[in-house]
Amino acid sequence: MTIEIRPITAAEANEYLRVLPYVNGFPQEEPEPSAWYAGSAAWPPQVPPTAAQVEEYAADLQADWIRPQAAFVDGKIAGASAIVSVQVTVPGGQQGALGGVTSTAVLPTYRRRGLLRKIMSAMLDDCRERGEFLAGLSASEATIYGRYGFSPATFQHRWEVRRTDVAFRSEFTDPGALELVDGAVAGEAWPVLHERVRAERVGEISPLPGKWEGLAAGGLPADGSGPAHHLLHRDASGAVDGAAIFRLPWSPDPAQTGVLQVEAFEALTSDAYRALWGLLLDFDLTKRVVAARRPVDEPLRWMLTNPRALKLTRTRDNLWLRVLDVRRALEARTYAATDSLVLDVSDDLYGAGRWRLDAAPDGATCTAVDEEPDISLTVNELASLYLGGVRASELLYAGRVLERTPGAVSRLDAVLRPDRAPHNAVGF
Ligand SMILES: CC(=O)SCCNC(=O)CCNC(=O)[C@H](O)C(C)(C)COP(=O)(O)OP(=O)(O)OC[C@H]1O[C@@H](n2cnc3c(N)ncnc32)[C@H](O)[C@@H]1OP(=O)(O)O
């Protein structure tokens, strides 16, 4: 058996599409209503793929934003994955170069023979060579990617609320206005709004080409959940500062009717946030509101007289990170406090390093040193800590970081403390 790991050519698109349908179970594992899949008209590929899908993937294989790699066993594709080049917002607002791992699958007949390990190693080497100091992914299963140095860095909630349980703590007079628009108008508004949102929201990702096309075409997945409704909020000057996409799915089961499903929601201001939820949570003829892919620091409960009315129905990891260049990653972000700590970071793939982090609110320097460390950790824990979504003290109690200087973990938490929980709504 000969194994070759190499990029896929456009001429091999048809064969590549035999592997991709095996990325199943995700996101179908637990359907996450999300208009964000709207851009992926050709996903998942049919078996056998249509001529249009083969053409579309052949074009993707030649695009510069995606770098598929395959394991060829005796000359045939037995497994594949791809890296997409995106930017992630890091604390301080800088854009971090991130290689996003996506569309990973090995044919069922070739699993557990080390093909993914070989593909992953080639892809991470490629990211490092290109200067991507982070890699990231959404994991189909939480047991797969830790061995390659990935670890959860952002988390998301799904919640629901019964309309009869909703009462707002205070009256709100909107200085702006809400408007229902069609997909074409929403398709123009979302890219602009999202650029502004992601400039502020740590963890948010730059959208892939074509991400918004499904909105503009009104072509959302035909999953029976009904047409998408697009809501915009404009401030007093008329600029869009918030938007939501929701559906009112119909079901023959009376228990399932009257659900308003929020698939996308972004607000740049408190006014937009309050106005949009004000309408969505008091929508005639609905019984419940369900919202998915929401940040863990959702302010909404603080607007309600009964904060318990908002029931979390799912919490899970979202963006997993892999730090590929410790110095560049730590120097790319800013910090909540000024301090200096020596971190001993072990990394099975790329070797250990000892780093002095001189952190400050306006940036940092990170220097390779040969001093006694204040904290020892692996590159996995560093990935979870990096955006500020996980505290070092939590990992200390879990036995995942070692405090060598008393008080060092609290000091690390103080410098990494985020303004808001990192979150990303738009995936890749
Ligand atoms: C970012 C994304 O694309 S998420 C989508 C991921 N894809 C899927 O879930 C589709 C279904 N699964 C698959 O196609 C395959 O099982 C893959 C791609 C997850 C793994 O491919 P394989 O070639 O079988 O993995 P490989 O043999 O290299 O395994 C490497 C290691 O991971 C372990 N491993 C692989 N898959 C799994 C799994 N699903 N659960 C737990 N451990 C796993 C192996 O036991 C092995 O462990 P070791 O390092 O201790 O020896």
From TrEMBL:
GO terms for molecular function: aminoglycoside N-acetyltransferase activity. The active site is at Y145, F428. GO terms for biological process: aminoglycoside antibiotic catabolic process. Homohexamer; trimer of dimers. Transmembrane segments: none annotated. SUPFAM superfamilies: Acyl-CoA N-acyltransferases (Nat), SCP-like. The keyword Acyltransferase applies. HAMAP family: Eis (MF_01812). InterPro entries: Acetyltransf_17, Acetyltransferase_Eis, Acyl_CoA_acyltransferase, Eis_dom, GNAT_dom, NAcTrfase_Eis, SCP2_sterol-bd_dom_sf. Residues 3-175 form the N-acetyltransferase domain. Belongs to the acetyltransferase Eis family. PANTHER family: N-ACETYLTRANSFERASE EIS. This is Putative acetyltransferase. Keywords: Acyltransferase, Transferase. Acetyl-CoA binds at R112, R113, G114, L115, L116, R117, S140, E141. Signal peptide: none annotated. It holds the Pfam family Acetyltransf_17.
